[in-house]
């Protein structure tokens, strides 16, 4: 199944990756946020940990980039979303016991980034609003079924069909 019931292990997985990143990117103004569906207790999700590395000083981005490159990540640009820089793993042969074992998406955002603001508002609203969380979960299961459990088809459908739901949550949560 593409979408899985909430797993308590997702928070542990996030913490393991976070510790490695913090050990290898020793800058003062860095925080790491668990975002996306796996960060919302009780919400079914694709079992992929979404993380935002957040920094304040503009010069910190290059230090973060160097630290991530030392961990075999590469910078993949913003992939069309301003304010959210994407980093991906270079090596997929399982040579790192944690970073290659736990599926994750890694983004780097300035603290003033609009995309970071949206990630945090969406996460926090769904954490605190059970009816919205349940509606979003139903929606995700429906999209997975329409996509016939295909990850790429699901991503495309979700991008199109979830836009109004996500925007409404961000509007409500940003008040």
Commentary on this structure:
The chain is of the alpha+beta class and 175 residues long. It has a single domain (9-173), classed as 2-Layer Sandwich (Beta Polymerase, domain 2). Helix content is 46%, strand content 15%. A five-stranded mixed beta sheet has the order 1-2-5-4-3, with helices on both faces. Helix 3 (114-128) crosses helix 6 and helix 4 packs across helix 5. The N and C termini lie far apart (36 Å).
Q: Name the average pLDDT.
A: 93
Q: How much strand content do the residues show?
A: 15-25%
Structural class: alpha+beta
Please state how the strands of the largest beta sheet are arranged side by side.
Answer: 1-2-5-4-3
Q: How many distinct helices?
A: 6
Round the Cα radius of gyration to an integer and report it.
Answer: 16 Å
Fraction of residues in helix: 40-55%
Please provide a brief summary of the model.
Helix content is 46%, strand content 15%. The chain is built from six helices and five strands, in the order αββαβββαααα. A five-stranded mixed sheet has the order 1-2-5-4-3, with helices on both faces.
Produce the secondary structure layout.
Blueprint: H1 9-24, E1 31-35, E2 49-55, H2 60-70, E3 73-75, E4 85-89, E5 104-110, H3 114-128, H4 130-146, H5 151-161, H6 163-173
Parallel strand pairs: 2-5
Antiparallel strand pairs: 1-2, 3-4, 4-5
Helix pairs in contact: 3-6, 4-5
What brief labels describe this structure?
five-stranded mixed β-sheet, globular, alpha+beta, 15% strand, 175 residues, Beta Polymerase, domain 2
